[in-house]
Amino acid sequence: MANTPEKEDENSLGLSSLYDPNPTPEEDLWFLAPRDEEESVSAMPWPTAAREDSLNPEIWQAAEAEEYQALLPAAEAVARLGARVQSFPAAVTERLALTSVAAILRGEGVWLGAEQIALYRALRILTDDRARDLARAAWAVRRLCTPGGGPLEGLRAFLGRTSVTDPHDIPGDERPVGPELDALSDEWAHVVQGLTNCHVLTRAAYGFAAWRTRALTPWDELLEPTVAAMLLGGGSGCGFLPMGEGRLDRHAVEAGAGGAGTRLRNFYSTVEAGAQRALMELDRLATWQDRAQEAVRDLSGRTPPALIGALLRYPILSAELVTSETGCSVAAARRNLNLFVERGLVNELTGQDRYRFWSATA
Predict the structure, then answer these.
(1) Which residue from 328, 334, 284, 292 is spatially nearest to 309, judged by alpha carbons?
(2) Tell me: the pLDDT tens digits for 53-88?
(3) Domain 57-282 CATH (choose: 1.10.3290, 2.40.128, 3.40.50, 1.10.150)
(4) Which helix (H) or strand (E) element contains residue 273?
(5) What does the domain layout of the chain look like in residue ranges?
(6) Is the pLDDT score of 100 beyond 70?
(7) Under CATH, which number does the domain 296-360 receive?
(8) In Å, how far are 16, 53, 124, 158, 292 from 209, measured between CA atoms?
(9) Residue 2 CA to its chain's centroid (Å)
(10) Residue 32 CA neighbour count, 13 Å, CB half
(11) What is the rounded distance in angstroms from the CA atom of residue 126 to the CA atom of residue 266?
């Protein structure tokens, strides 16, 4: 029915009928963004990926020159670690990788020890609530310890995203796959390879920042971009940069972590902490290795020396893991482990008769 002249007059004056509710004052509409905020009213009310600072190579070159006092000790620590690793069996790098991966996951808020990751990799020991995190950790250690197949050779193979459906994905976790991933991979590799006039540690930090601008990984996951950066900065020795407990955590990422200089300083300090920790671990292992070789000098057979090698490689051992590493029987593995306990070379950690685990004494 058409409006009467009286109704049109009421509408033009903004009057409402007796049955219309009073309008809610705008200040009580809590879900609306305040008008005086600089942030757009379209901003999402949940955490979003941080906006990275400029990835102009000239900016990062200038930042490297300003942060040389942080770069020098980090580069020196990495060089000393590379030289130190050469005096150990090659398998000891897996122990360093386990420690670094555990440190990265703690930056995400995922508390997995190097021992848990090692047992999962060797024997697939896990709990249902840790399945996805352990699978991610195992991927990281495998990438760090396997020659070739680095991130610059193609992210589809590097990340293992060979299909549209990833069994480790969670609902709402939309990662680029297929042609989209290939295009982002080429773009990322191009910008990283363009930073040729900087130190390798700067290049690794730049690769980490460039990864996050392209949303190759969900914003709150740091494992994939950090592993890529570790391989970009790796050279002689263990082949990857060690990572310590540093500022590469999701809270720093969420906050934006400042400009290129701040990002470089954080990256340098994290690498330096990881290298220093790895050097201390290698010193401890070297002392233990000398003592163990002297303690088993009177023993015959190939199991005792193989057991020493396994204890250098893994932070924790079970009899089944010793069997898979040395090829001996479970009974022989337990007998040699008990002999090592008697000679003060290993400690049994559980105090149980079943499901027992051992580690090298400090």
Answers:
(1) 292
(2) 478 999 999 999 999 999 999 999 999 999 999 999
(3) 1.10.3290
(4) helix 260-295
(5) 57-282, 296-360
(6) yes
(7) 1.10.10.10
(8) 56, 9, 33, 18, 44
(9) 68
(10) 9
(11) 33
